[in-house]
Write a structure and sequence with these properties.
The chain has a five-stranded antiparallel beta sheet with strand order 1-2-3-5-4, covered by helices on one side. It has one domain: Yope Regulator, Chain: A, CATH 3.30.1460. With 122 residues, it is an alpha+beta fold. The two termini are 17 Å apart. 31% of the residues lie in helices and 31% in strands. The relative contact order is 0.20. A hairpin with a 5-residue loop joins strand 2 and strand 3. The radius of gyration is 15 Å and the shape is elongated. The longest helix is centred in the middle third of the chain and has 16 residues.
Length: 122
């Protein structure tokens, strides 16, 4: 696996979540034409800290053209996410959010895996 380029600043995320009305903070870590990666934190009612990583995969390009080869490739990536314990949900903009709750100590390692999976979209 390759070294992650950016470190995830968990203390900054926790400070932002602490003052947020919804007790959540999120930051985009990497953006590419084919996908986006983000990290976040949620504070639940018992003040438990829940870290998560997200991969965002748009199903169609902005031009709206459907390319079946690209969709097949994206389906394989989504299946890989599911096999690694990510939840999948579709957004109104036709993108799929792949999210996984991760221990703070495992964020960097899981980020590297997430980035490696999404490299298959290129």
């Amino acid at each position: 696996m390759k070294e992650a380029n950016l470190k995830i600043d968990t203390s900054k995320l926790m400070r932002k979540a602490d003052v947020d009305e919804l007790k959540e903070a999120y930051e985009t870590i990497h953006r590419d034409g084919c996908y986006r990666i983000g990290a976040g934190v949620r504070l639940d009612n018992s003040e438990q800290i829940i870290f998560f990583l997200e991969g965002v995969v748009p199903l169609c390009g902005e031009e709206g053209e459907v390319k079946l080869d690209e969709l097949r490739s994206k389906l394989k990536v989504l299946e890989t996410f599911e096999s690694f314990g990510y939840t999948l949900r579709c957004e109104k903009d036709n993108s799929v959010i792949c999210e996984k709750k991760v221990l703070e100590s495992q964020l960097e390692e899981e980020y590297e895996r997430l980035e490696e999976i999404l490299q298959n979209l290129k």
